[in-house]
Design brief:
The chain is of the alpha/beta class. It folds into 2 domains: about 210 residues, Rossmann fold; about 270 residues, Ribokinase (UDP-N-acetylmuramoyl-L-alanine:D-glutamate ligase), CATH 3.40.1190. The protein is built from 18 helices and 17 strands. α16 runs parallel beside α18 and α17 crosses α18. It is elongated, with a radius of gyration of 26 Å.
């Protein structure tokens, strides 16, 4: 399923209307589909307060209110906008509301009367703002209204997107409705998946109102089970090198765990052979703790490149726990020019930020797996800039350096460039994972999973997609077993076999 920006959704609406469905009919469809869900989920004769803005989102809300009244619910509308600003379709629905005698009021301030309406409602339908909300402060009276809704005991349904949330990036405009349910019209909006979005939308349901995905050129998609690539088939007559020989450069004094977790995850993800290169001074302790199947190889910094060059490997990993004090330029130069796939994470990204121009000459596929802070360092931007424009910035970075970017977060995003045009960058929003995975070592496990899949898929983009999805699914399975608060990164490794069994056809 495609994910769209507000402007892309507007174009889809325009194309739908141009192909013969009247805009008023589209509003009727959207309101009717939302009503069907609400009516199925709430008790009979519920007291419903519908909050309607003056735009088309408010028009959807008016359709819902009319249908609620028709089916025996006690529906009432509270208009938050000026009636002089109604869109034509909202105006038409307002005339119909007046014709059936449905009670309504125009909201001017937070007073005792409005408070009573909110407190007595069983259900509140939020149809104030649509997904195209601009970045400007709310009027104080609207902020007060949203705060009252959030403090109420009513079940809150948001139509398309919780009001106050920006559809372009998921940031709020100072306040927003915190919904129990969000009824998404046709396609998920970017803002539902980013920043504040996941914490405000509640449980989401996408409703089909007949707008075709062919009406948009969006390259953004949900990463779901149905869109997963397959690993290569394991043939009966095969050997370990058919499934990848990975060389992982990880670990340093005081940070051995990152390499242990990355290597173990790589092995569990199906890699045929894993070799982990560690500094001489930590070799004994790492070798004592590493799974038996993993070869641990000590190195001295000046000798590492010749040693790697003399070792059979199908892909490389650099970064987990390597520390920031070393001189990584010679190693980076060699890895980037090796023509083998390379995954860079953690401290490897720190070193890359000091010399990212080296990416311009890379030969093999490169996958970067930064979290928001690491990506800001790579781009030289602050976190406010990142939050405002992360989609555009990440797509531009992936296209400029021709790397696959795995931008970690609640809905981890995978940016796969297709040429130098950022608008053609394929973006996948992951649908697995949970907040329990916000724990030390989770990223090291992800790096290992992706690396372990590199030689088992057709390309690096597929490895990134499958790795991110499986990592999140392992986290969901671990949360079911241990709970989110008690979840540790090593639990993800334990659950990887089950995640693979569920997702990969063997």
């Amino acid at each position: 399923m495609k994910v769209v920006t507000p402007s892309e959704m507007s174009e889809m609406d325009r194309q739908t209307i141009a192909h013969g469905i009247a805009d008023y009919e589209l509003m009727e469809r959207a309101g009717a589909r939302c009503f069907e869900v609400i009516n199925q989920e709430i008790p009979e004769h519920s007291k419903i307060l519908v909050l309607c803005g003056s735009g088309n989102n408010g028009g959807d809300g008016q359709v819902i209110a009319r249908l609620c009244r028709h089916h025996g619910h006690q529906a009432e509308v509270l208009f938050t906008g000026n009636p002089d600003h109604f869109t034509p379709n909202s105006r038409q629905n307002f005339n119909r509301l007046q014709g059936i005698g449905l009670p309504y009021t125009f909201y001017s301030e937070m007073n005792e009367e409005v408070q009573n309406k909110i407190q007595k409602a069983d259900v509140i339908v939020d149809a104030v703002f649509g997904n195209g909300l601009k970045n400007r402060p709310l009027y104080p009276k609207i902020t007060a209204l949203f705060e009252a809704v959030n403090q109420s005991k009513a079940v809150v349904y948001a139509i398309d997107i919780p009001s106050g949330l920006r559809g372009s990036n998921g940031l709020t405009v100072g306040a927003a409705v915190r919904a129990d349910r969000t009824l998404v019209i046709q396609n998920p909006k970017v803002g539902l998946l980013l920043e504040n979005g996941p914490d405000f939308l509640g449980r989401a349901t996408v409703l089909d109102v007949g707008i075709l995905e062919t009406y948009t050129d969006s390259q953004k998609m949900l990463l779901e089970a149905s869109s997963l690539p397959n690993c290569i088939e394991r043939k009966k007559n095969s050997h370990k090198y058919d499934y990848g020989a990975l060389s992982i450069i990880a670990g340093s004094q005081g940070m051995i765990g990152a390499g242990l977790m990355c290597s173990s995850a790589c092995l569990k993800a199906g890699a045929g052979m894993v070799s982990t290169w560690v500094p001489e001074n930590i070799y004994d302790i790492v070798a004592a703790q590493m799974p038996w199947e993993i070869m641990v190889k000590p190195y001295r910094s000046r000798e590492l490149v010749p040693q790697l060059a003399d070792t059979r490997a199908s892909a490389y990993v650099f970064g987990p726990g390597v520390g920031r004090k070393r001189d990584a330029k010679p190693l980076f130069n060699w890895l980037v020019q090796s023509e083998k796939p390379l995954v860079i994470d953690a401290d490897g990204l720190y070193h890359l930020a000091q010399n990212k121009s080296i990416l311009k000459g890379h030969q093999g596929d490169i996958i970067l797996t930064p979290h928001a802070g690491e990506f800001c360092r790579l781009c030289g931007i602050d976190k406010d800039d990142y939050r405002e424009n992360s989609m555009e910035t990440a797509a531009a970075f992936a296209a400029a350096y021709q790397v696959i970017l795995v931008l970690k977060g609640y809905h981890t995003r995978i940016f796969i460039p297709h040429g130098s045009d950022p608008s053609q960058c394929e973006v996948w929003f992951n649908t697995t994972g949970n907040p329990g995975m916000a724990t030390a070592g989770s990223g090291d496990v992800l790096t290992g999973v992706i690396a372990g899949l590199l030689s088992q898929t057709q390309n690096a983009g597929d490895a990134a997609k499958l790795g991110v999805y499986l990592h999140g699914l392992a986290g969901d399975l671990a949360a079911e077993k241990y709970g989110m608060c008690a979840l540790n990164a090593t639990d993800l490794i334990r659950m990887l076999p089950q995640a693979l069994q569920r997702s990969v056809h063997e």
